[in-house]
């Protein structure tokens, strides 16, 4: 199985100006946004996700979708499916939509939204699994980092508490692992699984939402 840094992880098609255009678009959409309860520009999250997708053998469409994966969910007033499709292609738009747990405003109830998204991921295609796994891996690593700095205060940044968040990471990982099978995304999902185990060991496993 290829790992980051292996020659086998080199994207099949070199990155083109579509990628730089996608970065510019993502920057405009998210330029005033920071990561939850921090002063860190949100674009840093998108760059991390895109970097992981490329490091694990993702192609340009997947890397572009990684840059744009939160546009429909967080800023539907600025980025529509039709706009993304027109600018970056239907395949990119489909991946972004598949990685969005909602495009509705106001957002549905957290638990229903997450359960519906987990169910969707069980049947996700390989590209959606690549981007979703990279996104969740970056998020899990961020929580681990912040938990080491502020402890349980980290959970106050989210719409749901510790037990619900840990449940969500576990179930998302299981769904992505099932969807990945022995395909291209398997190694990336494996890294996510290890990060979630580390997060549970660090923060304490939940039982209330199992």
Can you offer a commentary on this structure?
By secondary structure, the protein is mainly alpha-helical. It has a single domain, classed as Hypothetical protein af1432. It has ten helices and no strands. α7 runs parallel beside α9 and α8 runs antiparallel to α9. The radius of gyration is 16 Å and the shape is globular. The chain starts with 16 loop residues before the first helix and ends in a 7-residue tail after the last helix.
CATH topology: Hypothetical protein af1432
- State the total count of DSSP E strands: 0
SSE pattern: HHHHHHHHHH
Poorly predicted regions:
7-11, 206-210
Chain-averaged pLDDT: 90
Q: How many domains comprise the coordinates?
A: 1
Determine the structural class based on helices, strands and strand pairing.
mainly alpha
Question: In the CATH hierarchy, what is the superfamily?
Answer: Hypothetical protein af1432
- CATH class (first level) name: Mainly Alpha
Q: Characterize the quaternary organization of these chains.
A: single chain
In percent, how helical is the residue content? 55-70%
Figure out the total of helices. 10
Question: Which terms would index this structure?
Answer:
210 residues, mainly alpha, Hypothetical protein af1432, 62% helix, globular, disordered C terminus
């Amino acid at each position: 199985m290829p790992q980051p840094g292996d020659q086998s992880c080199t994207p099949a098609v070199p990155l083109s100006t579509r990628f730089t255009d996608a970065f510019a678009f993502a920057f405009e959409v998210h330029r005033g946004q920071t990561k939850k309860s921090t002063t860190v520009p949100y674009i840093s999250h998108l760059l991390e996700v895109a970097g992981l997708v490329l490091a694990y053998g993702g192609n340009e469409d997947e890397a572009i979708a990684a840059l744009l994966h939160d546009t429909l969910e967080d800023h539907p007033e600025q980025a529509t499916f039709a706009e993304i499709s027109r600018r970056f292609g239907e395949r990119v738009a489909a991946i972004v939509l598949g990685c969005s747990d909602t495009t509705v405003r106001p957002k549905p109830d957290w638990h229903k939204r997450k359960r519906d998204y987990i169910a969707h991921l069980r049947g996700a295609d390989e590209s959606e699994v690549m981007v979703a796994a990279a996104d969740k891996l970056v998020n899990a690593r961020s929580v681990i980092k912040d938990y080491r700095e502020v402890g349980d205060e980290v959970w106050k940044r989210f719409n749901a508490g510790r037990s619900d968040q840990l449940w969500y990471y576990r179930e998302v990982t299981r769904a992505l692992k099932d969807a990945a099978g022995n395909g291209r995304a398997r190694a990336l999902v494996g890294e996510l699984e290890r990060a979630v185990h580390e997060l549970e060991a660090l923060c304490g496993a939940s039982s209330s939402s199992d």
